[in-house]
Amino acid sequence: MTVKDNAREASEKIKATAKSARDRAGSTVENAKQSAEKAFGSARETAVAAYDEGRERARRAKTRTGDGIQEQPLIALAGGMIVGLVAGLLIPRSEKEREALKNTGAKLNDRAHSAYDAAKSAGQSKLEEKGLTTKSAEDVVRNVVTGIGEAARTAGSAAKDAAKK
């Protein structure tokens, strides 16, 4: 064999090896591409499903909240007031607020105490006018308890007598 033949043979081997490497690389690239497409498709489906589920949960929460407000508006109002109160307590007061409201709290407190005292006094007067005093309430409770005790003793005696017959 001549050098030229050896070179040709080596060239053909190199070409064959390169072709084989190219084919394997192409196959590997194709496999990687297919795997990437599968992963992307799966991730996309998962993301869409998660989005749909989150949207559905938000819709149900909105419905439940609306239903709860319609069924029990006073509780919703009280909850809103509590949230407002907490927010008001957490937000620091400005100097302008302090200056504008410095005597208002004390005035409101005095008025609330006056209203409470007036309501208490009027209520007690009306109860006494109807004869409903603490003493009469105690007498009623005592009579009810005594009556229940007597009824229980009578029922027990009747059951005992019936069992003897």
Characterize the structure shown.
- Helix 1 (3-71) crosses helix 2.
- The protein has helices at 3-71, 73-90, 95-101, 104-129, 134-164.
- The longest helix has 69 residues, at 3-71.
- The protein has a domain at 1-78.
- The radius of gyration is 45 Å and the shape is elongated.
- The protein is 92% helix and 0% strand.
- With 165 residues, it is an all-alpha fold.
Structural class call reads mainly alpha
Largest sheet: none
Average pLDDT, to the nearest integer? Answer: 83
Q: What is the molecular shape?
A: elongated
Q: Roughly what fraction of the amino acids lie in strands?
A: under 5%
Tell me roughly what share of residues is in helical segments: over 70%
User: Counting H and I runs of at least 4 residues, what is the number of helices?
Assistant: 5
What is the rounded Rg? 45 Å
Number of strands: 0
End-to-end CA span: 135 Å
N to C succession of SSEs = HHHHH
Low-confidence stretches: none
